[in-house]
Amino acid sequence: MKIMPNRMDRGFEMYQKEFEAKALEVLRSGWYVLGKEVSAFEEEFAAYIGGKYCVGLASGLDALWIAFRLLRIGVGDEVIVQGNTYIASVMGVTMNGATPVFAEPDEHFGMDPEKIEPLITDRTKAILVTHLYGMASRMDEIVAICKKHNLKLVEDCAQSHGASFKGQMTGTFGDVGCFSFYPSKNLGAFGDAGAVVVNDESLAKEFKVFRNYGSEKRYYNKVVGANSRLDEIQAGLLRVRLSHMNELTEEKQKIAARYSKEIENPLIKLPTLVSGATGVWHQYVLRCEERDRLIEYLNKKEIGTIIHYPIPPHLAEAYAYLGHREGFLPITEHLAKTVLSIPMYNGMTEDEQSYVIESINNFH
Ligand SMILES: *Cc1c(COP(=O)(O)O)cnc(C)c1O
C-alpha cells in the first residue's frame, strides 16, 4: 500500500461540489480581490477563533512580519522565539530588522516558559510563540511573563487552527494571532492566503490599511504599506472549508488518538500534549534515535514521511549572520536530528492508518 505523507486531493474531494460551486460563483461575480467573500470569511473566522477582529492577508509570513511592523518592533529590538520553529516565524522578526533570541522548546515541542525569563534583556520587546504541529503551548505562564515584563505577545498559529489551551483558542492570548492558510495547513486554501486575529479595533484597522498600500480611501495613502490582499476565490473556498472545520479537526484527532494508542515500539517516542492543551495534529511527530534507518524502512514499505524541520533556523545559511554555531541549542538540534512526521491527513482511510501503525510496530 502506497501512502503519502499528505493528501490534499482527499481534502478537496470531501467537499468537491461545494468548492466547485463557490469557485464558479466568485468567477461569475465580477469582483476578485477584497470583497464580500473576504469580509464574510473575516467575520466567520474571528467568530470561530473567539477573537474580535480578523483581517485577511496574502500569507502567513505576511501576517507575521506585518504584525511586528505594526507593533513597532524593529532595529535594536529583540524577540524571543523557540528554536525549533519553522523558519518563517523567524523571518517575520528579522524582516523588520529586529533580532531573534532563541529559546529551547519543552518536551512537547512548544515554547518553554521556564526558558524565557533568563533571555529577557532591556531590548526584549516581544515573545513569539509557535504552536508547533498544532499543539498548544503553556499560554497561562507565557501570558503572565509578558504581563510582568511588559512584552508584546504574538502567536504563530500557522499550524494550530482550532487548537486550544484551557478552553481558549490559540491566536487569542496575545496582541496578534498569525494564521497561514497555505494548502497543506489544517485550514487550507487553494493557493497562498493568511490572516491575523486581534482584539484591538484600532490595530485591526491598521492591518486593513497596511495590506492595501497603506490606503484607507483609494489613492489617499496614509502610510507606506504593502500589497498583502486576500482574494475572493481563496476567501470563498476558505469559507467552505471553515464550515466543516469541526469535523475536519475531529477526524485528525481520531487518527492521532489511534496512533497514540496503537503505535508501540521501544525505539519510538510518541508526541504528548501539555496538560490543558488540545492538539489539532497538523503533524503527528515521532522521535527516533535511529531516524534515518526508520525513514529508509518506511520508504521500503512505501510510506512517505517528512522531517519538520531538518535544519533549525539558527543554523540555516540565511541566519549565518547571527553567528550561532552547532551546539548553541542542544535540545533544538537534537530534535532536528530525531523528529519524523508520519502520514496525517483528512480523508485518510482506516486501512491506511492500520498499515502505518503495523509497519511502525514492526520496525526493529
Ligand atoms: C506555514 C507556516 C508559516 C508561513 O505561512 P505561509 O502562508 O507559507 O507564508 C509560518 N509559520 C509556521 C509555523 C508555518 O507552519
Question: Could you characterize what this model shows?
Answer:
- It is a single chain.
- With 364 residues, this protein is of the alpha/beta class.
- The protein has two domains: 8-242, Type I PLP-dependent aspartate aminotransferase-like (Major domain) (Aspartate Aminotransferase, domain 2, 3-Layer(aba) Sandwich), CATH 3.40.640.10; 245-361, Aspartate Aminotransferase, domain 1 (Alpha-Beta Complex).
- Helices cover 38% and strands 16% of the residues.
- It contains 13 helices and 14 strands.
- The chain has helices spanning 8-14, 16-29, 36-49, 60-70, 87-94, 113-116, 139-149, 201-210, 232-242, 245-262, 291-300, 330-338, 350-361; strands spanning 53-57, 78-82, 99-103, 124-130, 152-156, 164-165, 168-169, 176-180, 194-198, 215-217, 220-221, 268-269, 284-288, 339-342.
- Strands 1-9-8-5-4-2-3 form a seven-stranded mixed β-sheet, with helices on both faces. It has a three-stranded antiparallel β-sheet with strand order 12-13-14. The chain has a two-stranded antiparallel ribbon with strand order 6-7.
- A hairpin with a 2-residue loop joins strand 10 (215-217) and strand 11.
- It starts with 7 loop residues before the first helix and ends with a helix.
- The model has no long low-confidence stretch (mean pLDDT 98).
- The structure holds pyridoxal-5'-phosphate.
- Pyridoxal-5'-phosphate binds at residues 59-61, 85-86, 88-89, 130, 156, 158-159, 180, 182, 192, 194.
Question: In a nutshell, what does this entry contain?
Answer:
With 364 residues, the protein is α/β, with parallel strands linked by helices. The chain has helices at 8-14, 16-29, 36-49, 60-70, 87-94, 113-116, 139-149, 201-210, 232-242, 245-262, 291-300, 330-338, 350-361; strands at 53-57, 78-82, 99-103, 124-130, 152-156, 164-165, 168-169, 176-180, 194-198, 215-217, 220-221, 268-269, 284-288, 339-342. The longest helix has 18 residues, at 245-262.
